[in-house]
Amino acid sequence: GSAATQFQRNPAYSVLNSDDIAYFKSILGENGVVQDEDRVAVANVDWMGKYRGASQLVLLPKTTTEVSKILSYCNTKRLAVVPQGGNTGLVGGSVPVFDEVIVGLAGMNKIISFDNVNGILTCEAGCVLENLSTFVENEGFIMPLDLGAKGSCHIGGNISTNAGGLRFIRYGSLHGNVLGLEVVLADGTILDMLTTLRKDNTGYDLKHLFIGSEGSLGVVTKISVLTPAKLSSTNVAFLSCNDYTSCQKLLLAARRSLGEILSAFEFMDHHCIDLAMQHLEGVQNPLPASPYKFYVLVETTGSDESSDKTKLEAFLLRSMEDGLVADGVIAQDISQASNFWRIREGISEASVKVGAVYKYDLSITVEKLYDIVEEMRCRLGDNAEVLGYGHLGDGNLHLNIVSSKYDDNILAQIEPFVYEWTSAQRGSISAEHGLGLMKAEKIHYSKSPEAVQLMASIKKLLDPKSILNPYKVLPQSVL
Ligand code: FAD
Ligand code: MLT
Ligand code: ZN
């Protein structure tokens, strides 16, 4: 597994014993202490089947007090812990490296309140994103984020990874949308930052430390989040471009002419489309006539059905006249729109089906963003297939390299080249997925030594015994 290749187990951590199990049963009851081999095995492996731990225990607390008791005990005994949400993370952060105790948040899935004047949702961390979407939509609002993993990922996991996703272009980062958090620190202290205020400049805004810290500083237990109003008209177009320069120009044109109604701008190269058609059931290429090089999904969301549609149609026509778009189609009904989205959201699923996937999630200026895909293709030749897709409107490329099985020679062709290239562009080696286990030792490609040292000081202050998500996020050398 991933553990043996990178690190030794830190011998300072205790090994779980029967007294520990008895204590956990005393606070959580039999149902909250999972030792069943099959269930534990599922929690030990990540969504890609790439990272595998050897934990023997999953704890399923139902309240913040239970989380606090678990952590207080683990801290005293120095038992290492992995917080786990929906286990859809893509960087090996959500599964143990060795025998860490898994603390699953799935049992904390209650909606606490909804302020339907201001659109403020307060809920527990283990709520599944899609369930929250359905709930707020019934109230006339939407979640400020959406991602392909919505059916499984938890809002607590989204916050812990600072997930970006498909609505980022319109509603921005969770650093802006999360209003308050309740977090349990490593020693069991419950930190109540669960405000629902829009404005609050009293001292340091501590919640931001936990947004994107991937379970390394505390366990998120409750959340309040701002939800935008649900607007009445949504339109989705699927377009093709003959070259990458046209995709860039199209983005600028969309920003200018669709303006405030633009709600998504996603791109994928034809390798992604081919893969999606091959591996996803029931999807159809909306533009099958000719093999284009690039495809773009544009979504608009506004409040005036006829003018929004007219705007999108005019944009499409002009873009075709200007030669930016080779062909395009606007979804005529919900099922066509969901087919467009299924293709885009299904690329990760399709990649995994090939066998092995090397995932890179890069922030790079839009002008340079596709250069790395082409360079990687030249480096790898026929040894693997290189896919480029992502959130173009946010300058976020998903560079995926797929092959039938994991191979160290392929990896050596990719790394450190991909990190060095990104660093030379002053890009980010993790735009939205986090560092997890995969990139803990690579943080220096995107952050200065001084910044990494300060992060290590914060980690030591909040988790002095380093029980929370060990081996992840920060390099071992600074801890
Ligand atoms: P997990 O995978 O369980 O955990 C992720 C990290 O957060 C781990 O380090 C874990 O320890 C920590 N954690 C989880 N819950 C808590 C908690 N309550 N308190 C403290 N720490 C916690 N990501 C994007 O940003 N944008 C996308 O568009 C996107 N699309 C995806 C599509 C697919 C098909 C898949 C499989 C993944 C996608 N992801 C995307 C990645 C992933 O879904 C997100 O990172 C998501 O936010 C993880 O949520 P989760 O509940 O599954 O967390
Ligand atoms: C996406 O945008 O599809 C995701 O972040 C998931 C992935 O890169 O696989
Ligand atoms: Zn993404």
Features of this protein?
16 strands; EC 1.1.99.39; alpha+beta; Uridine Diphospho-n-acetylenolpyruvylglucosamine Reductase, domain 2; 35% helix; Uridine Diphospho-n-acetylenolpyruvylglucosamine Reductase, domain 3; FAD; binds D-malate; FAD-bd_PCMH-like_sf; 18 helices; Alpha-Beta Plaits; FAD binding; 479 residues; five-stranded antiparallel sheet; seven-stranded antiparallel sheet; binds flavin-adenine dinucleotide
**Helical residue percent?**
25-40%
- Flag low-confidence runs: none
- Mean pLDDT, rounded to whole units? 97
Number of beta-strand segments: 16
Structural class: alpha+beta
**CATH structural architecture of the largest domain:** 2-Layer Sandwich
Oligomer: single chain
Tally of helical segments = 18
What ligand species are in this complex?
flavin-adenine dinucleotide, D-malate, zinc ion
Through-space gap between termini = 23 Å
CATH class of the largest domain: Alpha Beta
Overall body shape: globular
The strand order across the widest sheet is 13-10-12-11-15-16-14
* Largest β sheet strand count, sense and barrel closure: 7 strands, antiparallel
Provide the CATH topology of the largest domain: Uridine Diphospho-n-acetylenolpyruvylglucosamine Reductase, domain 3
Radius of gyration: 23 Å
Question: In what range is the share of β-strand residues?
Answer: 15-25%
Counting structural domains, the number is 4
